[in-house]
Write a structure and sequence with these properties.
Pfam families: GST_N (PF02798). It catalyses: RX + glutathione = an S-substituted glutathione + a halide anion + H(+). By secondary structure, the chain is an alpha+beta fold. The chain contains 7 helices and 4 strands; from the N terminus they run E-H-E-H-E-E-H-H-H-H-H. The structure holds glutathione.
């Protein structure tokens, strides 16, 4: 019989696992959190995510889902009540997905370079990252959150930086990717 309940396979320092935990908490869903040692992955992680073998994995009633942004959308659909994560309007939803993709594809690699370089290379990385972030800042103009008055999908996708700063200020990257 399939295992019941909600489980998150994560890693404490991961900037993408926190998205899943934020989404579950916003929905008020109780879950079990399992911290993975990424240098010695558990049998569960290899079984539930045999393709990429990465965290996060959400296991809902025994069924695994991988990829943080896909998991966040799944959580919004599976627990329809409570805090809405995706915008109700199809156009706004498309916009949120566009900016999420932009942040993932353009900004995250640029931001990551800041933490992995020094000297002139780091100064250049800061400049590139600032350029990447400008359109995002413009999209936020006049709003408290990307989701409007309340935290939504894009806030969850982009908010990792606030979570990660204390992590990286403790030393080099803890995340293998
Ligand atoms: N695009 C994936 C990225 C997942 C990812 O890179 N997870 C890292 C931790 S932050 C991981 O599990 N790394 C282990 C590995 O690459 O073997 C997502 O958003 O879920």
């Amino acid at each position: 019989m399939a295992e019941k309940g909600v489980k998150v396979l994560g890693m404490w320092a991961s900037p993408v696992v926190i998205r899943v935990e934020w989404a579950l908490r916003l929905k008020g869903v109780e879950y079990e959190y399992v911290d993975e040692d990424l240098a010695n992955k558990s049998a569960d992680l290899l079984r539930y995510n045999p393709v990429t073998k990465k965290v996060p994995v959400l296991v809902h009633d025994g069924k695994p889902i991988a990829e943080s942004t896909i998991i966040v959308e799944y959580i919004d659909e599976a627990w329809k009540g409570g805090h809405p994560i995706m915008p109700a309007d199809p156009y706004e939803r498309a916009q949120a997905r566009f900016w999420a993709r932009y942040a993932e594809d353009k900004c995250n690699p640029a931001l990551y370079l800041i933490f992995t370089t020094t000297g002139e290379a780091q100064r250049e990385a800061v400049r590139v990252a600032q350029q990447c972030l400008k359109p995002l800042e413009a999209a936020l103009e006049g709003r408290r959150f990307f989701g409007g008055d309340a935290v939504g999908y894009l806030d969850i996708v982009i908010g990792w930086l606030a979570h990660w700063l204390p992590v990286i200020s403790g030393g080099p990257s803890f995340c293998q990717d």
